[in-house]
């Protein structure tokens, strides 16, 4: 199991203009990460996604870091910049970007919102995911959906989606921290979906009861109204080591990437997080 980092972890630095997106592979490599995951490419002015992906792939080869995954948005109910009926074809283009990057897998969303029960949305989501993964299989790219976005987040919903898609090329990006956004115990949730994991996010959160007053900047509410704030791996309430052990016992041997969302300096947070994650992985794989 290799320890990677999501480009999302550097978002604060990219937004502040202190780090260019193209420099993320070198920064990740210098910090000791053997794998980088690209999320939401920040395109330089005048560059297409395909052209910039080629630049990123070249930079990864130059510094000697693997590309672990490519993460993009999608919504088979509402569409993402296109009408819902055009979403599958739009994702064909994203698969082409993943191929240029040299990524073995691509994560896309299922939907961000739906005014109704999950069971009613499930056939639409499964149909879209199946069509995308069939295209991905033809290109040698595994596709997956992450437990993300409140509506498509619970472990039982994710399990139902995998069962409905019923394709060997399709699975889940298991984000152990995101289950807290739906007020679900991370260890129990990971135990349910571990057999379907194609990629894993190590993520930690500080958690406070919804009965507590608003803690202020940096905190957001879970679906049930509790408070969450991104944390350094090992500093929060997510049982990261336990979740890794569950995944290993389920036979998972892929990458695990840190996705840091906290308020601390990303350099310090990722340095500490990598130290802790390496130790947790070593203990889980003994």
Can you describe this structure?
This protein has helices spanning 11-16, 24-31, 49-63, 87-101, 118-139, 155-165, 186-193, 240-249, 266-284, and strands spanning 3-6, 35-39, 66-72, 105-108, 142-146, 170-175, 197-202, 204-208, 220-221, 227-231, 256-258. Strand 6 (170-175), helix 7 and strand 7 form a beta-alpha-beta unit. The chain has an 8-stranded parallel β-barrel with strand order 1-2-3-4-5-6-7-11, surrounded by 6 helices. It is built from 9 helices and 11 strands. It has one domain (3-269): Divalent-metal-dependent TIM barrel enzymes (TIM Barrel, Alpha-Beta Barrel), CATH 3.20.20. The radius of gyration is 18 Å and the shape is globular. The N and C termini lie close together (12 Å). By secondary structure, it is an alpha/beta fold. Helix 3 runs parallel beside helix 4 (87-101), helix 4 (87-101) crosses helix 5 (118-139) and helix 5 crosses helix 6 (155-165).
What's the topology here?
Blueprint: E1 3-6, H1 11-16, H2 24-31, E2 35-39, H3 49-63, E3 66-72, H4 87-101, E4 105-108, H5 118-139, E5 142-146, H6 155-165, E6 170-175, H7 186-193, E7 197-202, E8 204-208, E9 220-221, E10 227-231, H8 240-249, E11 256-258, H9 266-284
Parallel strand pairs: 1-2, 1-11, 2-3, 3-4, 4-5, 5-6, 6-7, 7-11
Antiparallel strand pairs: 8-10, 9-10
Helix pairs in contact: 3-4, 4-5, 5-6, 6-7, 7-8, 8-9
Number of helices: 9
Tell me the total number of β-strands.
11
Q: Approximately how much helix is present in the residues?
A: 25-40%
Total domains, how many?
A: 1
Strand ordering within the main sheet: 1-2-3-4-5-6-7-11
Named CATH architecture: Alpha-Beta Barrel
CATH superfamily: Divalent-metal-dependent TIM barrel enzymes
In oligomeric terms, what are we looking at?
Answer: single chain
Return the CATH topology: TIM Barrel
What radius of gyration results from the CA coordinates? 18 Å
The main sheet comes to: 8 strands, parallel, barrel
Q: List the uncertain runs.
A: none
């Amino acid at each position: 199991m290799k320890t990677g980092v999501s480009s999302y972890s550097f978002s604060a630095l990219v937004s502040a203009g202190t780090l260019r997106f193209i420099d993320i592979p070198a920064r990740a490599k210098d910090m000791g990460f053997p794998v980088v995951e690209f999320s939401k490419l920040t395109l330089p002015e005048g560059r297409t996604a395909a052209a910039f992906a080629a630049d990123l792939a070249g930079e990864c080869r130059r510094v000697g870091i693997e590309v672990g995954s490519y993460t993009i948005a999608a919504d088979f109910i509402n569409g993402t910049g296109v009408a819902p009926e055009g979403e599958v074809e739009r994702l064909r283009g994203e698969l082409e970007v993943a191929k240029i990057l040299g990524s073995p897998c691509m994560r896309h969303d299922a939907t961000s919102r739906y005014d109704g029960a999950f069971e009613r949305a499930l056939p639409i989501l499964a149909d879209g995911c199946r069509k995308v993964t069939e295209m991905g299989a033809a290109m040698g790219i595994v596709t997956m959906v992450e437990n993300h976005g409140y509506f498509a987040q619970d472990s039982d919903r994710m399990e139902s989606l995998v069962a409905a898609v019923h394709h060997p090329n399709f699975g889940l990006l298991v984000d152990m921290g995101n289950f807290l956004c739906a007020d679900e115990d991370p260890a129990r949730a990971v135990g349910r979906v571990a057999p379907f994991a194609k990629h894993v996010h190590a993520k930690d959160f500080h958690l406070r009861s919804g009965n507590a007053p608003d803690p202020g900047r940096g905190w957001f509410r879970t679906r049930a109204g509790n408070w969450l704030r991104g944390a350094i791996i090992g500093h929060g309430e997510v049982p990261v080591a336990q979740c890794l052990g569950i995944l290993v016992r389920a036979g998972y041997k892929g990458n695990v990437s840190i996705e840091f969302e906290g308020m601390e300096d990303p350099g310090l947070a990722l340095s500490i997080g990598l130290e802790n994650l390496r130790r947790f992985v070593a203990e889980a794989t003994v």
